[in-house]
Amino acid sequence: MRILLTGFDPFAGRSVNPSWEAVRQLDGEVIAGAWVHAIKVPVVWRESVAAIAAALDREPVDALLIGGLAYGRPSISVEALAHAIGDSPWVADNAGLALSNERSDGDLGGPDALLATAPVRAIAAALNTAGIPAVVSWDGGAYVSNATLYGALRHARDRGLALLTTYLHVPAIPEMTTGTAAPSLPLATITQAFRIACEVVATHAGPDAPSRRWPTAMTALP
């Protein structure tokens, strides 16, 4: 099995993006029998998807785990869904473009939303078991991150690829939150989260974990 990991460039004036700092440490590893390759992608509308598509075309893989920063989130969000709308006029991408309530891919003929194809509940549950805070998320925002997952899912769908795909939104690292009340996780913990996610996609068989009352890996309320 072959797994492609991706992380993003820093954006929004920050000097580091923990998603790339984490996945780059796993580049070249063999995890649960799966070979892992990591690439960095730009925080630019459509170019992020193009970079991933080019990597998939160069060397086919079985699973794709996209990583990105969600500053302010207290836990790792394993994204279960991506939609086709870009709507973040208050923050431009790294090329200076801001989308406002428009298709992120520019194609009116595509589906409005696509479900992740990786076992998202199993990934979140495995992270929780390891003591890493994680939830299944149904809202990946409306910025480049969501557009990247949507574009990758559509690329695989349009080409008939059996590609296990999801997105891990990770919190900031402590160095980024000094003097603020923003939550954070150590880089080593985020790196371990990606390693566990790789283990799950490499070994998971059968359907994903059962649905819960809430979209999270935690035990359902009575």
Concise structural overview:
This protein is α/β, with parallel strands linked by helices and 222 residues long. The protein is built from five helices and eleven strands, in the order βαββαββββββαβαβα.
Describe what this molecule looks like in 3D.
With 222 residues, this protein is α/β, with parallel strands linked by helices. It has one domain (2-203): Aminopeptidase (3-Layer(aba) Sandwich), CATH 3.40.630.20. It has five helices and eleven strands, in the order βαββαββββββαβαβα. The strands form three sheets. It has a seven-stranded mixed sheet with strand order 2-3-1-4-11-5-10, sandwiched between helices. Helix 2 (47-58) packs parallel to helix 4. The chain is globular, with a radius of gyration of 16 Å. It starts with a strand and ends in a 19-residue tail after the last helix. Mean pLDDT is 92; it is low at 212-222.
